[in-house]
């Protein structure tokens, strides 16, 4: 695959975490910095999709949602519209365990035959760790216009592949949504 832009979705109301999720500390540094460290070996073309100034301390490009309050579908739409790359690695901001190796595997397995490639494990599909082509911008726009914002329905509408990860690798998909989950993460790792 040629050039890839990395977009980290920093939006979300984060009511269960009671603070901006990407800035929650894990091992002494914010989640967002763990994710950036994992993606930098892949590309330094990084953009943060955020409607807050909380991430201004980071030197990466910030973009605002084009359509407000449309969840991850709106965030992906904004990321793709603002990207200069055909293929885009889209990540949520709450996956501090993600590794360069796993993301590189996703990029290697993505081919032009697919508009979207995402991971799955034994428990579920992870649509917010994926390669998304700019070709799906019309699908995203239609979903936003119709307020059809479920990520799994979006995947169904795009030509997609699901890449299964088993064993230890799947622990990297762990997203942290509450203070209890954060405490458990900090205890385990």
Key features?
two-stranded antiparallel ribbon; globular; alpha/beta; 189 residues; single chain; seven-stranded mixed beta sheet; 6 helices
Structure in words:
It is a single chain. The protein has 189 residues and is α/β, with parallel strands linked by helices. It has 6 helices and 9 strands, in the order βββαββαβαββααβα. The protein has helices at 31-39, 71-82, 100-109, 137-145, 151-157, 179-188; strands at residues 4-9, 25-26, 29-30, 46-49, 61-63, 87-92, 116-120, 125-133, 160-164. The strands form 2 sheets. It has a 7-stranded mixed beta sheet with strand order 5-4-1-6-8-7-9, sandwiched between helices. A two-stranded antiparallel sheet has the order 2-3. A hairpin with a 4-residue loop joins strand 7 and strand 8 (125-133). Helix 2 (71-82) packs antiparallel against helix 4. The longest helix has 12 residues, at 71-82. The N and C termini lie far apart (33 Å). The mean pLDDT is 92.
How many separate helices?
Answer: 6
Distance between the termini: 33 Å
Structural class: alpha/beta
Q: Kindly state the mean pLDDT as a whole number? A: 92
Indicate the percent of residues in helices. 25-40%
H-E string? EEEHEEHEHEEHHEH
Rounded to the nearest angstrom, the radius of gyration is 15 Å
Major beta-sheet overview = 7 strands, mixed
Low-confidence stretches: none
Beta content:
15-25%
* Spatial order of the strands forming the largest sheet: 5-4-1-6-8-7-9
Topology:
Layout lengths: L3 E6 L15 E2 L2 E2 H9 L6 E4 L11 E3 L7 H12 L4 E6 L7 H10 L6 E5 L4 E9 L3 H9 L5 H7 L2 E5 L14 H10 L1
Parallel strand pairs: 1-4, 1-6, 4-5, 7-9
Antiparallel strand pairs: 2-3, 6-8, 7-8
Helix pairs in contact: 2-4
